[in-house]
Amino acid sequence: MEAVKRVTGRMLPLDRADVDTDQIIPKQFLKRIERTGFGPFLFYDWRQAEDFVLNRPEHDGASVMVTGANFGCGSSREHAPWAIRDAGFRAIVAPTFADIFKANCYKTGLLAVTLPESQVRHLIDLASEDPAAEVTVDLVTQEVRGDWFAYRFEIDAFVRECLLGGLDEIGLVERHQSSISAFEGRRAAFLPAVK
After folding, report:
1. Would residue 141 count as lying in a domain?
2. pLDDT tens per residue, range 52-78
3. Does 174 reside within a domain?
């Protein structure tokens, strides 16, 4: 997994609450087992409407999604954060997230940041009024900042360590490779060996 320290970029203002994973990536696109190739299907049904925010050229290249409360509710599918990352987003800011969705984001290297609703509203309004406005979502200082504002966010210390170090579950185990090798070297010969 790629380490995440800070994300700087323009924002996509998705001014909707209770966005579920079925809308993020509809079920008909879940047949792939790779983590890539889902971006074109992000919000597939909503993108059929010409005026949907993701279809607007002024938001092309946005890397920070700012959205309403309870984002990622519904069924627990890893494909939702995969689709968001594959579409170019590296951070999502919302007042609340569904727990499983948030955990899946972190396992994918997608930074999910919770801010109070008033601060999220400010970011949505700013991105709507000025699509060129940039923010930095900084995991090192735990701030979302832009011109004339800085909002502090909290994040679980273990999750923060994993994101900063680019560590998924496999990476966490690999940090202990020397201890694993030493243990395997002491095992009795008649026991099955790990290959």
Report:
1. yes
2. 999 999 999 999 999 999 999 998 889
3. no
What range defines the domain where residue 41 resides? 6-167
Residue 182 lies in a domain: no
How is residue 189 written in tokens?
Answer: 């010969």
Our CA angle for 43, 112, 109, nearest 5°, is: 90
Give the per-residue pLDDT at 194. Answer: 66
Whole-angstrom distance, CA of residue 139 vs CA of residue 7:
8
Low-confidence ranges of the chain (pLDDT < 70): 194-195
| Domain-located, residue 25 | yes
- The CATH number given to whatever domain includes residue 142 is 3.20.19.10
Domain count, the chain: 1
Check residue 192 and give its pLDDT: 77
pTM: 0.89
pLDDT of residue 141: 98
Q: Which of 43, 7, 4 is nearest to 159 (CA)?
A: 4
